[in-house]
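Fold this sequence, please.
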Amino acid sequence: MERLQQLLQLNSWLLADMPQYQWQARQFATDEQSQWQLFRSLVNVREPRPVRDDFIKLQDAFLQHKIAEKGITNICDLIPMKERLYLWQGDITTLQVGAIVNAANRGMTGCYCPLHGCIDNAIHTFAGVQLRLECAAMMKEQGYPEPTGQAKITKAYNLPCDYILHTVGPIVAHRPTENDCELLANCYQSCLELADKNKIKTIAFCCISTGEFHFPNEMAACIAVETVRSYLVLHKDMSVVFNVFKDEDFKIYNQLFSKMDL
């Protein structure tokens, strides 16, 4: 089945499940790019509920091809900046490591804003609708919103990594307080400990709490590097990738690495 036909079929199933969006869907053209935007929008707003097996099969085939098209990067192909520490600028949904870290919100079921540019939206979109279902079941069992600074693990589904670690970073309005800094450090520490518990040896961190959560980029990077370095001193079999997307963050981390004495 051609890519466009796959998208048309997937969107048809989604709209049958969510008929309230039928009139908005008519505003999208029938070319592949427009239908991909419609697909992303629909899965972004879809509540976590069961989906038909043939949808999953077709969705998985489409997403895996889409990710392969973007190009998969294996940690083995990266050159460490320092021993067991890597800096990589790129799309974290294409990174092949033991686990990637998702900067989640307290609901833990992904971003519901159509086509939003946050990492939570991208990870849930490319992992597939199964990820939202697993997160929802996990949160239903927990019975309360996810506290800041902790971490949870899920399958990665269609992503090239093995697992996803989800953590909620602090949201800051002005200059971060001492408690904000401690909570951000806890995010990194919790993810590292959870990875170690699950025998995950390679982990890629995004820039937790920057962007939408407004933590200053340079301060966040310093906390991230210091927390990870301290952990790796006692865990010699783990490697960490600091994944950045923006040029600003790449420059910040590159400068931090250049000052390290390892």
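The two ends are 52 Å apart (CA to CA). The longest strand covers residues 99-104.
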